[in-house]
């Protein structure tokens, strides 16, 4: 299977096998042509290692990537109740988060801030950045094991996410893909989200979600939340100070709390971020690369970059824990 020599350098913690590397059987082999013979190997590696990198294959278009992702038997999902700005490329393929190039995006599992999420995520590098722009990954099982017991115990009852949509965050119309309040409320009822329409017409949502979850297939415990990303401590200090002064802590765009509603100390989330950093695996993208991740087993991130960069994403296989709380 791995007969074509391919460059692959990575930074990883000791003992990590991420990502499993799969390369063509011959130069110029089409990823779509190879899918039939590779599918069982890919699925096996994704279910054990957690993620694969397919490098060196011919992927001539985003449509070929879309067809490859869809070829695993599950319809590609729309990006509902999103937390970051993205653009739909078509057919269930989206740009990755459209934050400025100088910003990092911390490690996270896709939509772990909700109780409904995709089990699979694919990334495709159309144009690698001239410098940086990696999509670092990490094993959520290893993160859970490394996390200090006191933090695991404190997080175990769950995390409350509070979002205030408006001028300082993604508008609710974009997040819910509708202009209809009725449709927003119907989605919130389905997803176990509490909502409140504020006097100025903006929306506040509150949701209790998991912090630790059990993988439905492997039975393994995984660290599965975005408390560190949504918490106000994730902002630059000057931005945080300005927002708290302007809006008040209850109206900042997003924040997280313990399940009992009490604040999460900044220092505790610093410890969480240190664990995430320790488990990070990073490698430079090459043009045409495709990764397939089990979204519960593997978290992902984005490094700052220079120059043009285009990485697209597709998601599939919905899962939820709506009966948990």
From TrEMBL:
Cofactor: Fe(2+)
Pfam families in the cross-refs: TauD
GO molecular function: 2-oxoglutarate-dependent dioxygenase activity
Keyword Ribosomal protein applies: no
Biological process annotations from GO: antibiotic biosynthetic process
Domain annotation TauD/TfdA-like: ranges: 26-314
Annotated keywords: Antibiotic biosynthesis, Dioxygenase, Oxidoreductase
Protein name, per record: Alpha-ketoglutarate-dependent taurine dioxygenase
Protein's organism: Roseateles oligotrophus
